Amino acid sequence: MIKLFITATDTDAGKTYVAQLITAALVQKNYQVAVYKPISAGCEIKHLADGIRLVNEDAQLLRQQANCGQSINEINPIAFQPAIAPHIAADLINVEIKLNDIMAGFENVIARGSDIVITEGAGGWRLPLGKGKFLSEFALQTKQQVILVVNMKLGCLNHAVLTYETILADGLECIGWVANCTEPMSYLDENIAELRSLIDSPLIAKLGFETDIKKAVSVIDLSSITELL
């Protein structure tokens, strides 16, 4: 089983979009793909078949592309209503975000026996959970392969290199990165070329924003993923 962790240079960098694309591309190749978004903030209260719960839009989007019949609760077990840092949202309702709970949710997903599990992180690599803990510790404990999404904008070179170096320093492998080009950037090609020289992992996609996921999957190079199977 391949365990992939999608992280990014910052929040709103395109993690969900990239996770959707990779999931859809792998499903098209007849792999069984399960998804996991352990923590979310910015959720709506919805009436579902299994009761009333907070539902995150990103988790719903991931569910649409996966093919293991997962519930929203399985995909996203820890959800908060306000669109703020999760550890602050947790403090507001006197809740502690525990690594053990994140691990337990992951084990539920792993138990499905899929070929690949794709986890979408929250925020950047060092997302605080509170009490000195970080979401990156979960990725480390579960020995996941990391894909880094770089939001191509002014300042991204510093953010990308620092994140990449920290992933390696934590003892994990970054098997690829994505240049997410959803806003205009001067000298875009030159910036991508610089990152290719600084990040010793393959560029697996250069993305604009194509709303049709089935069309967009053609630009994803899956070789660094499928060679692990």
Broad CATH class: Alpha Beta
Question: How would you sum up the major sheet?
Answer: 6 strands, parallel
CATH topology: Rossmann fold
**Which structural class matches the secondary elements?**
alpha/beta
How confident is the prediction overall: mean pLDDT? 95
Number of strands: 12
Secondary-structure element string: EHEEEEHHEHHEEEHEHEHEHH
Number of domains: 1
Share in β-strands:
15-25%
CATH superfamily: P-loop containing nucleotide triphosphate hydrolases
Radius of gyration: 17 Å
CATH architecture: 3-Layer(aba) Sandwich
How does this structure look, described?
- The protein has 229 residues and is an alpha/beta fold.
- The chain has a single domain, classed as 3-Layer(aba) Sandwich (Rossmann fold).
- The chain has helices at residues 15-28, 57-65, 72-75, 86-92, 99-110, 135-141, 156-169, 188-198, 213-216, 223-226; strands spanning 2-8, 33-36, 39-41, 44-48, 51-55, 78-80, 116-120, 128-130, 133-134, 145-151, 174-180, 203-207.
- The protein has a 6-stranded parallel beta sheet, sandwiched between helices. A two-stranded parallel sheet has the order 3-6.
- Helix 1 (15-28) packs parallel to helix 2 (57-65).
- The chain starts with a strand and ends with a helix.
